[in-house]
Amino acid sequence: MATAAERKKLFGHAENNYLNCSKGFRSWAFTLDHKRIGVMYLIGVTFALLLAGVFALVLRTNLWTNTSELLSDKMYNQMFTLHGAVMVFAFIIPSIPAALGNFVLPMMLGAKDVAFPRLNLCSFYLWVIGTGFLLWAILSGRGLDTGWTFYTPYSIQTDTGVIYATFGAFVLGFSSIFTGLNFLVTVNTMRAPGQGWFKMPLFLWGLYSTAIIQILATPVLGITLLLLIAEKSMHIGIFDPKYGGDPVLFQHFFWFYSHPAVYIMILPGMGVISELIAVYSRKKVFGYSFIAFSSVAIAVLGFLVWGHHMFTSGQSVVVTLIFSAITFTVAIPSAVKVFNWLATMYKGSIALTTPMCYALSFIFLFGIGGLTGLFLGALSTDIHLHDTYFIVAHFHFVMVGGTLTALLGGVFHWWPKMFGRMYNDNLGRLSCFLVFLGFNVTFFPQFVMGARGMPRRYASYDPEFIIFHQWSTVGAFVLGLGIVLAFGVLVYAVFKGPKVAGNPFGAASLEWQSSSPPDFHNFIHQPVLCGPYEFESMVYDEELDTYVLREFMEPSEHPKVEPEPQTH
Amino acid sequence: MAVVETENEAHDDHHDHGEFIAHHFDSAEQQFDSGKLGIWLFLVTEVLFFSGLFVAYTLYRVLHPEIFDQAHVFLDKYLGFANTLVLLFSSLTMAVAVRYSQLGKNGHVVWYVLGTMVCAAAFLGVKAIEYTHKWDQGIFVRSAFDYHPGHHEAPAGTLAHALGVSEYLIWLSIIPLLLVVGFAVYAAIARMIEKPNASFFSACMAIAIGGYFIGALAGHFYMEITDGGLGGRSEKAAALMAYENETHSDDEHTNKPVDHHDESAVEQQRAESEIAPYQGPQSDEFDQDVGIFFSIYYCMTGLHAIHIIAGIAFLAWILWRSILGHWRSDYFGPCDYVGLYWHLVDLIWIYLFPLLYLID
Q1: B10-38 pLDDT, tens per residue?
Q2: Hey, is A540 helix, strand or coil?
Q3: What is the number of other CB atoms lying within 10 angstroms of the CB of residue A65?
Q4: Is residue B280 within 8 angstroms of chain A, CB to CB?
Q5: Which residue of B has its CA nearest to A230?
Q6: Which residues 6+ apart lie within 8 Å of A371 measured at CB?
Q7: Distance (Å, whole) CA A45 – CA A127
Q8: CB-CB neighbors (< 8 A) of B141 in chain A
């Protein structure tokens, strides 16, 4: 039990917090605080998103006509390559784990920081350096036109900045490894006293599974890219057929990393959605252990399916069949999650806040993205759909419809915690609507085009596809507008939004048992452990206009009827 | 400030925070366990980092066994064996150093870590002799492979000629030489300005990096004694080299693929594996395809050498902290972690040596 003044100190809006506990450029540049590193990551990946988003809009504008009038063919190749490379390596992979995860993970464990704060900062600077090398490929005027996959032998022949870009991706890989290593150790050794594995929020299971993949898959990408650099600079004859090398070996190496990397992109997103669905349905999550283990199952199965990117590369029929079969099994844990989310919402007290809107979009879009994956996993249809817009639409439904939507939902969810200010919920919902609408208008026509044979990565195309491409271009601009609106709503809230106290949404995981924004040490008192989805243990404190743990309220103060979570 | 107060409160409640326990850990034990798990995971990533090279090795050995058969004889297995012993010995000294750090005997740790570093540098010295000897003979990666056997004199009037060593070796030795001289000079300066720890550390570093020259000298004399490193090679290698000498002196353009007696076995293997063999260029097959082996050799041993160099840097850090007397029975984590890293680097060499040098 605590007095109102104590509650205000513990769970209120904090004027002295991690954002202003020290000042100056150096206090941020050399900070070891996971929260500040998370915020810096968030700024960094936002920059990468906007840059790569501009590339995407240029591409879509060029495809308005079927004769590629805006860009030369060479420029077009560079544009889609840089869009893909920056989006994948500099944005999606670090987005949820490194930005949101960094901020939230130690707090969900009731810890003061991640296990290795210096390594965490090092990871951020490696991200900066790696992204810098990717940008250098652009700014040096050489560009990059291999596609984000750097396939040999073309990547060895082209005179564009393959070495800069691959080195950038190599460094970004180490950034990702360090984040994963840090998270895995932190979850293992720094959980709050009494917080067993099954008392962790599901977001942590997602991040933990992601960390496993980051640690086991990324080093293979590292050595692959080093070998590619050696091949390109010295012609060592490992990938270059001219010197007796095997270009398909590169594909195997590359996808041995990059298929698991697909799950690096989606698993943290699924973790975020598990949190959002439970909090905004105000109901204990349905099938906790199934969701938790399905994350691990996806991580493990993800290592065994890389060959499905290579059905047309001439690999043996037996291998192809096995890869196809294992690919189908990935659908099982994915579907387990979706059904559990739906069951969680069933009879829940659903609040359609901005984060919940994003979460609902995620379920819909990820559902389509996942189901179309089965078309591609099936051998006969894949031969037809390989390298068409169908596959482009499929992975955008998963990566953008999935990860980007989850990221936005998560950012809106934890924004009041990060900055202690509330955004305008109506404008937030509008941004979600625009993203959802724009996304579908962009990518749904691409399924149709792809099924009718429109190949990917072509600057000019048959006139019959013009109408689909034009729909797609319109959608892309709506999607861009939605993202810019979300960005504006969030930034406005930091400066002008109404101040909020510690737990405006009535969530029960430990990070909400702090002031908003949190103290430099995260918690002024060791948080009181309660189940991450025991929402009934959180009661509304009228004075603070926030939810606090029942133990901290006087019995007389307990409200008779608990109000709905607030929506501003 | 409120922040400081709360930290003291929280900590005074439970335990006394040791000198080296980071603020976010509750206990020395938690910190040690985190570090231990972290370093093991890091070693997992290291193994996977090398795994790509091992896969490439396996693949090419299965596809082109004849290349490996022809090429490995150019590696001197006695030098390789000597380096294996050096690294094994360094693992022993490292293990002893870790034990002394657990007992808090910092003085002992200094000497054993120094011994480990000398071995590490000596390994690199021997490797430098091996590399430069190959470069002299034009044994490079695939595209630059241009084998020309025989004894190679550096051009008259150069330092390399005067010393009777390869010019490449002179270039390679510049950095260790600068480091040794730099540390020695700084050791003297630090002594004069009365910084005993820094002086002692620098003197140790000069000795440690000096190990490079011990290795290089030993390797050099071995090469001299065995007349350019024919020693350690099988008779078959000598025959191959003699054959090469002959064809090279006759006519470069009539150079035919080497006819060696394992051909039929190789053909049989190919037939069994049902993989269409790489046909390769029609002429100069010996010269060029052997280069793939050396591509893999240079990638694997080069990456390993980079890990040795990184290991020396980590060991220098441990050396410095040992001189400052940081290790106690409840705080020796960093020494333990670097020890684990060092054993892994050793272990990788234990795999590389037979895979590359002992193919027969």
Answers
A1: 444 444 456 788 888 988 999 999 999 99
A2: strand
A3: 16
A4: yes
A5: B299
A6: none
A7: 9
A8: 230, 234-237
Residues of A in contact with B25 (CB under 8 A): 190
- List the single residue in A116, A219, A249 with the smallest CB-CB distance to B48: A219
| ipTM, two decimals | 0.92
The DSSP element (H or E) to which A547 belongs, if any, is strand A546-549
Helix (H) or strand (E) holding A541: strand A538-541
Chain A neighbors of B289, CB-CB under 8 A: 244
Interface contact B55, partner A, CB < 8 A: yes
User: How many other β-carbons are positioned within 10 Å of the β-carbon of residue A129?
Assistant: 15
Mutation pick from A243, A248, A319 vs chain B, by most beta carbons of B within 10 Å, is A243
pLDDT tens, position by position, A310-343: 999 888 899 999 999 999 999 999 999 999 999 9
Mutation for testing the B interface, residue in A189, A213, A220 having most B CBs under 10 Å? A189
Q: What is the pLDDT of residues B159-205, one digit of tens each?
A: 888 888 888 999 999 999 999 999 999 999 999 999 999 999 999 99
What is the model's pTM?
0.90
State whether residue A345 is helix, strand or coil.
helix
- Distance of alpha carbon A520 from alpha carbon B355, whole angstroms: 53
What is residue B217's three-state secondary structure? helix
Burial class (CB in 10 A: 0-12, 13-18, 19+), B177: middle
DSSP A526: P
Q: Cα separations (Å) of A349 from A89, A412, A444, A480? A: 38, 19, 32, 32
Whole-angstrom distance, CA of residue A91 vs CA of residue A134: 12
B299 vs A181, A230, A244: nearest CB: A230
Cα gap B73→B357, rounded to integer Å? 8
Cβ distance B143 to A234 less than 8 Å, yes or no, reads yes
Q: Give the best residue of B12, B23, B24 to mutate against chain A (max A CB count within 10 A).
A: B24
- Looking at CA atoms only, how far is residue A246 from chain B in angstroms? 9
Kindly tell me the sign of the dihedral angle through the C-alpha atoms of A234, A238, A241, A242: positive
Angle between helices A202-234 and A162-189 (to 10 degrees): 150
- Structural domains of chain B ordered from first start: 40-249+285-357 (1.20.120.80)
**What is the distance between the alpha carbons of residues A167 and A165, in angstroms, rounded to a whole number?**
5
Q: How far is CA B216 from the centre of its chain?
A: 13
**Subunit contact A222:B280, Cβ cutoff 8 A:** no
Give the nearest partner residue to B142 out of A189, A237, A520, using CB atoms: A237
Amino acid in position A264: I
In B, which residues are within 8 Å of A251 by CB distance? Answer: none
**pLDDT tens profile B107-127:** 999 999 999 999 999 999 999
Q: Which two tokens stand for residue A374?
A: 């089965």
